[in-house]
Amino acid sequence: MAHEEFTEKDWRRLLISLGEDPDRPGLHETPSRVAKAWQHWTSGYKEDPAECLKVFEDGAQEYNELIIVRGIPVYSHCEHHLAPFFGKATIGYVPDGKIVGLSKLTRLVNCFAKRLQVQERLTIQIANALMTHLEPKAVGVVIRCRHMCMESRGIRTEGEETVTSAMLGELQPNLALRTEFLSLAREG
Ligand code: ZN
Fold this sequence. Notes:
It is a single chain. This protein is of the alpha+beta class. It contains seven helices and seven strands. The chain has helices at about 10-15, 30-40, 50, 100-115, 120-135, 150, 175-185, and strands at about 55-60, 65-80, 85-95, 95-100, 115, 140-145, 160-170.
């Protein structure tokens, strides 16, 4: 896929197409600001999920229980409208010797969220990356997000959340583990 540069000139053209005057003082810096902001919002394309999880902590050899990390911030943009969707992710896993801290999980979520996304794919990509690079016995991911493209156009009521989940490894056949994960993911 050829990478065509989208320049400040193009953002100026967008402002004009919206009926704006790009030369009025309030909009003067907008094209360069927007260009910079979109670089940040799509910085996940340059991140490698393997790199995010490279440094793990040992010492969980005896630990066979579910580890749950809640409240991981999610800021993404939907690929259908380029509108923000945002919320929180809960990640649960049963380690097989390796554990990771909150900062690594936040980085992993950012790696996929800072791309153009649909929430369903974001959820499964995070779960798959954990399965591949952390090699746990089980992984569960639940994401709750508000979608501006739906709320602002009246398709959803304000504050309504879309909930998606992905469960891999032992979470698939093990109903008790699945129930435990879902109840822990629901609280708070
Ligand atoms: Zn959308």
